[in-house]
Design brief:
disordered C terminus; 3 helices; 22% helix; homodimer; 11 strands; elongated; seven-stranded mixed sheet
Chain lengths: 185, 185
């Protein structure tokens, strides 16, 4: 499928809603409607003792509290590592001495062009929580096993958090396999 | 945050784009823009020998081929298990004798009300692939370890597939812990 032209249908402070006119592989033309929202971050805040920060967030669209990691919207031109640090501080009150990029995933590839950049935040220092007015959340510090179980506690799970956690587990496994791997820092 | 009223801004064959007028917790009013697209399925097709079906799908919005499991849009009033069976057949050519519900996640809870229902499909019988015209994909049958590595092969990963896979791994672990657990069927 190829883009012939793109049209802005709606613009708001958070994203742009677009309609692209496209040419399909079979030569026919069609439309593709989507959310233009290029970037975001997911942050796993981990302490030296192996505990991690997770949260329960009220999601208006689902009408439910969801088990999550720290998630935040960013702009592509921003330094994503800095944005990860800022989001973690705003949502949990912890400032990270170090942030490590674990990889990228697309949360909703059929309807949004967003790419979520996943970071591990370490060397955490408490500075006091500063939740935003529009957000409703509770923050927890759990052992790694408890955090994993928490993210799998339903009935409804949060896909972006499960994806970020999958990248974190893959990173942990890579460290365990490496001979110089030093767990937890 | 509470809904005061909802307005349809755009409707297309795939979803509805809405603006809700809302009242925030602090009493102020605001708008919430989102994709109204209530349901979908993710399907992991698994064989008796432990191999699973995965695919590489071209995603127009990202301009990339992504490593995925079977994903498909559904309507809330449909039988989600039947839709999972149909999507698997359409995308891979395999008919499932049994589908098992593993859980539900929300892929993009800030901008879409979609809930993805995850299914494990077993007792697979080949009936020949029937890919849809608009889809560009390749299907692979891989060992479980290879499939996991495939879903983690970047640069860009697919969040919905990582989430579905996390539910599959949690289900597998539950079976291993159960004394009557019988691996692979």
């Amino acid at each position: 499928m190829e883009r012939i032209e793109t049209e802005v249908l709606f613009r708001n402070p958070w994203h742009t809603y677009r309609r692209d006119r496209v040419r399909r592989k079979d030569g026919s033309e069609g439309f593709y409607f989507y959310v233009d929202h290029p970037s975001s971050v997911a942050v796993i805040g981990a302490f030296r003792d192996g505990t991690v920060l997770v949260q329960r967030t009220f999601r208006y669209l689902l009408g439910e509290w969801l088990p999550q990691v720290v998630l935040g919207h960013t702009r592509p031109e921003e330094d994503q590592a800095e944005e990860a640090r800022r989001e973690l501080l705003e949502e949990t009150g912890f400032l990270a001495g170090e942030v490590l990029h674990l990889g990228d995933f697309t949360p909703y590839s059929g309807v949004s062009n967003e790419v979520c950049h996943v970071f591990l935040a370490r060397d955490l220092e408490e500075r006091g929580a500063r939740p935003e007015v529009t957000e409703e959340m509770e923050v927890f510090r759990l052992s790694r096993g408890e955090a994993r179980a928490f993210l799998h506690s339903g009935p409804l799970l949060d896909g972006q958090s499960l994806s970020a956690w999958a990248l974190y587990e893959a990173w942990l496994e890579g460290r365990e396999e490496a001979p110089e791997g030093e767990e937890g820092r």
